[in-house]
Design a protein that fits this description.
The structure is a homotetramer. By secondary structure, chain A is mainly α. The first copy, chain A, is built from ten helices and no strands. Chain A folds into two domains: about 50 residues, Orthogonal Bundle (Arc Repressor Mutant, subunit A); about 140 residues, Tetracycline Repressor, domain 2. Chain D binds a DNA duplex through helix 3.
Amino acid sequence: MTDKNRPKTRKDRIMDAALRIFAEKGFQNATITEISKEASVSEATIYEYFGTKEDLLFAIPEKISNEVFKKSVEVLPYIKGVEGWIRSILFSYIQLYQSNPHYSALVLLQLMPNKRFRQTPAHAAIRLSSHGLLDCIKAGIEDGTFKKGSNPYLIRSMLMGTIEHLFIHWHMQGMPKKEPSIMDMLDPLLNIIFDGIRTKKEESGTTLYLKLEDANAFGKLLQKKGGGHPPKRKTKK
Amino acid sequence: MTDKNRPKTRKDRIMDAALRIFAEKGFQNATITEISKEASVSEATIYEYFGTKEDLLFAIPEKISNEVFKKSVEVLPYIKGVEGWIRSILFSYIQLYQSNPHYSALVLLQLMPNKRFRQTPAHAAIRLSSHGLLDCIKAGIEDGTFKKGSNPYLIRSMLMGTIEHLFIHWHMQGMPKKEPSIMDMLDPLLNIIFDGIRTKKEESGTTLYLKLEDANAFGKLLQKKGGGHPPKRKTKK
Amino acid sequence: MTDKNRPKTRKDRIMDAALRIFAEKGFQNATITEISKEASVSEATIYEYFGTKEDLLFAIPEKISNEVFKKSVEVLPYIKGVEGWIRSILFSYIQLYQSNPHYSALVLLQLMPNKRFRQTPAHAAIRLSSHGLLDCIKAGIEDGTFKKGSNPYLIRSMLMGTIEHLFIHWHMQGMPKKEPSIMDMLDPLLNIIFDGIRTKKEESGTTLYLKLEDANAFGKLLQKKGGGHPPKRKTKK
Amino acid sequence: MTDKNRPKTRKDRIMDAALRIFAEKGFQNATITEISKEASVSEATIYEYFGTKEDLLFAIPEKISNEVFKKSVEVLPYIKGVEGWIRSILFSYIQLYQSNPHYSALVLLQLMPNKRFRQTPAHAAIRLSSHGLLDCIKAGIEDGTFKKGSNPYLIRSMLMGTIEHLFIHWHMQGMPKKEPSIMDMLDPLLNIIFDGIRTKKEESGTTLYLKLEDANAFGKLLQKKGGGHPPKRKTKK
DNA sequence: AATGAATGAGGGTTCATTCAT
DNA sequence: TATGAATGAACCCTCATTCAT
């Protein structure tokens, strides 16, 4: 984030305007003219900085995802346990999307359907973050936190899909103030999923048979990794 | 579905062509000219049947969702237990989306971001189906299948969000043949979620018990809600 | 005029609808579709009767002017004096235009600017009538009613121009109910013009004299031209 | 009027081309493509200057009437007597229409029938001028030049209607060179009308007196109204 | 670096008209 | 005779993009 005291550069003004307008009207319905007016620059100036309308579109998430997702990686060392890591990553996501609704609308509604977006540095950043999440899940399976046999891709889709779905619908309803907020739903979401995939260590008797597989093989693997209990979250509020 | 022997009507040819082209190139990049060529009709003929390019867009899901979702409701009475109902609804979704990839691309990538789509009969059909799913979840909470205190909206978002996420990414990767298919992921998905939200009465004989529930115990519980029929939605207008 | 008891023929229904719609929306903004709906026939039927949209336009005044102007000629023999004849012709005009506002709007606002209208039988009828008026004026000059040296073309333009101007402005104001009506202005108009061009034999008792003329003097003068008959037009072509 | 030496601006070139083409083919039959070619600009450039084809149409008389009618008001102080004022106003009209036949064709044949034209600044200018004429006539009635009881609206319609009629027919005949020209008809027209409405003070020695009036008597009468200045119009807003 | 001015390229839409039935 | 269905042919207008200044 650049110096907050300095007046915004032309480039930033353009990107801010573009973010707002792309998010509100959609990429195709937004016009360079409108963006240039909102940014108080001439249309030609936009082309000085961005070769193409689509380049401008792609430049926005590139800047933001670089800023944000890297930070989310930085905090991981401070957190213990896969479940904590996963929670931390998703927390970043939700915070980003919630604090910057234009950005989430842009990414979820305008960029996801755009095929060329996948070849973009911005998308690479998102993939990276998404890949990090996958790695956490895989680690959780390996270390016995999660059941052996769990499909980590499915789990990632459940996590990301749920969050994106919540945001998409929030946007489609016109972003109402809501209780509970999407952030409030993070822990319930994780509880359900973790409950569904967590290895139940002392399922005295009963679950035994079914769980057995889960309980054995994984147990050993995990002992190597040091018994890694996920840090308990106190459900807030 | 009309007589399969008869040659397709012009109107159907237009909608088929439009579905394919809208799905592949996006609504804005598709041109009436191209659709008319693909459908072997003149451009003017398209305007005979559909007043507007957008009308044509919206006409496609209207036809399909009416056909499909009604059928998915019809089978519910044959199924016992909330979990079965939920599985059945999601099965319909996935089958529709998987067997008609153009359609799922259209709905998930073109229509969802379109604000006007929400005021469309087609969207109403989708909402109806989505509301049915919610009712099933609520019924499950009420009858004790699922934990009291579960947030049914969150659960719905998890189910739908996961499925949509899987499809969106499948599309964005160019719809590769994959093992496991998305349909293959339905049961794992349900297992995780149901495991996470199911009331654990006595933890024993689990897997067997699961099947038992479907067949017997849940049936009884549900009879309280009216003889095992799917929860009635009050048709809203 | 066809039998008033019989239901209108298709052709008449089409022409009635066209008159109304052409007059209200203008020729170019009227559509065959709209006319066909108003007339309760198919579009193709219109082309059975009228080869072209413009043919339909031109057919309307042809029918009406044939009906009306011939009648206006028939009454001339019953009237004495050029001034009476002139008044009678103009009276017909105003009556036609006033009693059939759609028709006057059509002729004055749609047809006059149309160059091809001049080659039309309908226009020929109008020219005929206009020529009759000119003949009357010329007769008046010849027989001494009007000053020698008067320009009959100018006088005709004054008469017709004034009336058309009044109607055009009436239409452009949305045809308000007005006092005095345009018909009420006929005599003031004629008074001014006749006053301006009448031979002043002895300048005294003017206004009184005016009334006398109408009744007597002019009658005699005109008898020179053949017993009070309106001037013959050589039917051209 | 801008520097005559400089090459015409694009905007002027467009308006010139449009005037010619609208006048010759009519508004609806003229195409932007043709105008753009005639003006040697691209079609898009036309839309830079004029938002709409109709805007372009309306821009033409706005420019011209502002230029011309204001000038016609400026000369009034130099002229003595209502009759002189009236003559002067009509002289301007005829001169404008005669020297710029495209313009008169446009106004009389294309714009008059256009309902939206009435809400246009250009039409307001025309109305203003027309209202000035009416004021002169009213002044003439008030100061005794014209007969009490004359209908000033009728008189205005006679003056304007005659002139417009003459021009319309001149256009419809293909604008032939003619003797007498329409300008030549101004004085005969005024003679007839003024003769018809002028107060005949002492009906003897008349015609002689008429000439005298022009030169002297009227001057005195008009001085009552404030030194021979043209009647003030209350600028309406 | 910034822009005012200009435009190429194309898209959606309209409608008079036709023709097989 | 009457028409439902189909379309060819345009036209207006938009806008991303360029370039001389």
